[in-house]
Amino acid sequence: xxxxxxxxxxxxxxxxxxxxxxxxxxxxxxxxxxxxxxxxxxxxxxxxxxxxxxxxxxxxxxxxxxxxxxxxxxxxxxxxxxxxxxxxxxxxxxxxxxxxxxxxxxxxxxxxxxxxxxxxxxxxxxxxxxxxxxxxxxxxxxxxxxxxxxxxxxxxxxxxxxxxxxxxxxxxxxxxx
Length: 177
Known about the structure:
By secondary structure, this protein is an alpha+beta fold. The chain has one domain: Histidine kinase-like ATPase, C-terminal domain (Heat Shock Protein 90), CATH 3.30.565.10. Helices cover 31% and strands 19% of the residues. It contains 4 helices and 7 strands, in the order βαββαββααββ. It has helices at 31-44, 68-85, 119-125, 134-148, and strands spanning 29-30, 53-56, 63-64, 91-96, 107-112, 152-158, 162-168. α2 runs antiparallel to α4 (134-148). The radius of gyration is 18 Å and the shape is globular.
């Protein structure tokens, strides 16, 4: 005799605030919107439970010509890394707009107070995700994905300032024209 399968209510991504994972991939995105969506996604899954996040987003859109899915993957990895490395302290995310002529690229930074990387770990982040420990592996994978989009990821570690991860995406070109 077979046991009846337990009844499960259908999961609707939109009702859980997870609609961002369903849509088609877009190659022109608003970086600030993608960051807000990634934070909402991780809050809905309780991955950021107990972590204080401060988002500093510009009022105007921050255009970037990158894959929405790839950027979302980078942001989810960086948010998860920041949550793991925060040690109960806050995380601040700052988004800078590109200039109107496309000379300065869109840029965002994650500031994690109290987190640090040793010089060895810092070097390993830029070599391979397999050479770095489990805590910073997400950071190394985010670097690989960022570079695959044509962007750069830089990491600064300071005993007083904590850990700062800066991502610069490719400049969108002459967006005002």
